[in-house]
Amino acid sequence: MSIDAITFLPPLAMPAAPDVTGAAKAPGGEFASWFGTQLADVNSQLVTADQGIQQLAAGDASNLHQIMINLEQAKLSMQLVMQVRNHLLDGYRELMQMQM
């Protein structure tokens, strides 16, 4: 595999952090703020892991162990966010099924 084979991959840019300042005034805004911060952290970990993979594919990786650690951290962080999301959706569905 040559470097030309992976040049079609565009570099990932970190998007702006979600605006959660207005949510702090609403009830439960602390959770929204925390969740927004966690999403931004997970995104930065995913970008770091992706950059490590691109370096590895290009042959420029100097520390394979650190790349693997970054990948595992990003994976675990993503799994945590998905589990929080799943539990929130389950709670919402339960509330919607309640009879008044």
Automatic annotation (TrEMBL):
Its main location: other. It comes from the Bacteria. The keyword RNA-binding does not apply. Transmembrane segments: none annotated. The keyword Protease does not apply. It is found in: Bacterial flagellum basal body. Keywords: Bacterial flagellum, Cell projection, Cilium, Flagellum. InterPro entries: FliE. Belongs to the FliE family. This is Flagellar hook-basal body complex protein FliE.
